[in-house]
Amino acid sequence: MLVDNRKIVVMGVANKWSIAWGISKKLLDNDATVIFTYLNDRSKRSIEKLVKDHGYNNYSLVKLDVTDDDDYESAFNKIKEDYNVIDGLVHCVAHAKKEELDGDFVNTSREGFLMAQNISAYSLVKASKYASELMDGHGEIICLTYLGGERVVLNYNVMGVAKASLESSVKYLAHDLGKHNIRVNAISAGPIKTLAAKGIGEFNKLLNGFLEKAPMERLIDHEDLGNTAMYLLSDLSSGVTGETIHVDCGYSILGY
């Protein structure tokens, strides 16, 4: 009953290992209507296969290239035409050049730096502008971040800086949109095996280090993240905004 009948836009589903899909599945299982954004025909087919394989029919799809300003307008106009109002936005979009996720951060290229910021951080700002205009008196916006935005994580480099920008954007958006009863929060997920994670050098070493040190002595999973997303997208978190909630089995509390 937490999100039933709510209409929630989800950005960033790539495949069945995506955190965005784990959150979407949780929402669909709890009778929310999920509006998936997709980049191209390939990503559209991938999402369609996922939802059909699981027997869902409470969904729709809309094209959105987060690097194209015109796409935001056309995508959210289509959403408005189909649904009139929405209740939430889940932003799970991030990207950096693979070559920037290796070696020293000091060698980051201008192009690589700007690309990571544009896709991973600015896209939240732009999407929040359009999504908030379709939220009628209430709404919830959440995004995904990682501890590399707070601390130096080996080989996270330019993405860590983009996540720091994302987390700061959450605070400013929460301030701007609070007067409209729209809340904005971030989930800082512990390391989890996704297609994107494979692009981080020595990821398995990072994963093993996390498992050795995390107070709960286990890795996080999609269920952990889906549950927290449900909390943030529901009225249970009605007084929470501008926050970054760590879902990492306690790893972020450590000082070593």
Structure description:
The chain has a single domain (7-251), classed as Rossmann fold (3-Layer(aba) Sandwich). The model has no long low-confidence stretch (mean pLDDT 94). The protein has helices at residues 19-29, 41-53, 69-83, 110-132, 157-177, 203-213, 222-233, and strands spanning 7-11, 33-38, 59-63, 88-91, 139-145, 182-189, 244-247. Helix 4 (110-132) links the parallel strand 4 and strand 5. The protein contains 7 helices and 7 strands, in the order βαβαβαβαβαβααβ. It has 256 residues and is an alpha/beta fold. The chain is globular. The N and C termini lie far apart (41 Å). The protein has a 7-stranded parallel sheet, with helices on both faces.
Brief summary of the model shown:
The chain has 256 residues and is an alpha/beta fold.
